[in-house]
Every structure is written in C-alpha cells, then in structure tokens.
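Kindly go through the following sequence and its backbone structure tokens. Advise at your convenience whether the structure tokens fit the sequence:

___
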Amino acid sequence: MVEKCYIPSSLEEALKIRRETGARPLAGGSDLMVQYKQGIGITPAFPFPVMIISKLEELRGIRQKDDGSVEIMALATPDEISQCPFMPWHVKNAASRMGAIALRNTATIGGNIGNASPKGDLPQPLILLDAEIVLRNCDEERIMPLDEFILGSKKTALRDDEIIYKIIIPPVSYSYAYYRKIGTRKANAISKLSLSSLITIEEGVITDFRAASGAAGPKVIRSRESENILKGKRIDEVQDVLPSFLDSWNDAISPHAMPQYRRNTTRRMLEHFILTAAGMPENQIIE
C-alpha cells in the first residue's frame, strides 16, 4: 500500500512533483522495498508518497568527458557500471560484487547512494576517488563532495525538493590499487567490511595515498589526517611511519559494532597493501 504514487514522464515533471508533494523517488526499489516490506506476498507499505522514476531517460547513461572525468547518471545500474570500459577500477570492481545478478540489473547508483547505508557497496570507492554528487530541483543544480552529502547511517544532505541527478568522478592516476570486500560468503553477500585504497609512487616518494573503509562506522571512513602521514615519505621510510599510520587509522574506525574485528582486519589489509606496493613494479592491482 502506498500513500500516493506518481509516474512522471520527464525529468521536468518529476522535479515539479518532488517540489509540490515531496514524493520520494523510487527506481530499482531494491532498498526501499525491503525496508518497508510487510511479509511474504504482501505489498510493501510506504508511509509517504512515492514517485517512480525508472523510465526517465534523462537520468540514464554513463559518459567520459574530454578531461577524463566520468559522469554516471542516477539510474545507471551496477551491471552497467561493471561493464563500462572507462569506469575507474575501484568502482567497477565494487559494482561487479553487488548482490545477485538480478539486483545488479535493477538497483541504481542513485538509490545505493541515497539509501546511505554504511554497508553500501558504491559510496566507498566513490569517496576514495573524490567523487562529487549533482543534485537538481526545479530551479538549479547543486554540486557537493559525496563524502559531505552522506551525513551518517541513512542520513544525507538531500533537500525535500531535490533528486540525485548524477555522480562525477574526477580523473585519477595511481601506481597501485587495492579493493577488498569481506562478507559471510563469496557471492551475494552484504558487506561486513570493505576497503579501497590507492598509492602513487614517483621516484621512490609517495606522492598520493588514499584509503576508504566501508561498514566500519556510521558512514564511509576516509581519514585524510592518516593519509597525510604517508604522503611525501620515501619508500625506504615506510617501515618507520607505518605503525603511526595504522594507529591513526584505528582511531578513525567507529568504536561500535565489532570494533576489534574491524580494526584488526583493516589494519592487516592496509599493511599488506602498503608493504606489497613498496616492493612491486608500477601499475599493479594488488588483491
């Protein structure tokens, strides 16, 4: 049962409906349908008006711009993202491991971000890559870092008259990349912990280092203070600064929900990535 349902035929109509009624956008429905289910074979009950936007062509597509940035429209599915030849490796990898095949063909990046679950698969690599989110209402576009848009578990900065329009991933280069998702099984698993990381090494110096951890707090964790401990260090100095870096990262992880497991496991993954990268030829994926 739904309080009221709207099916706009254009983005302009959808934005007008959103402004006038506050109806919540629904595309794949893989999150909302589960959250408001009443039982097997019973239609979910939404205590708010719903706007089905799955047919809006203006919200579909993935494009690479001349500067190398990638634009992912809100209705792009995980399957489309995982198959995209110019999609950044971390995002492509995360999308390919989302749930079952059926879910990867029905869920959308807009929904995965808008749901703001700490265990969501796509926000973690996107935040690692400094992605921005574009929000639209009837009058304007608003652009902000995705890391600032997601405020906490199930909380975002989306205004009542806005919808998620697209995600922009700026160009990125690195020497080594790492991605790991840990679940209770190999496939179709909800993340218990995930980690994306990248490192750039130029003439023996770490010029860029980033890491983002999912399912380790109320939102994706990215500690720029911890990252700065490694930036500017020579490879032969890594062993000396690694303990302080790992301790700093420990402090960034939420003290709730199995903190010892999450801290110890994240610590081992980061240590493995950094030390392996320090001894490998360039442009390698570390798994």
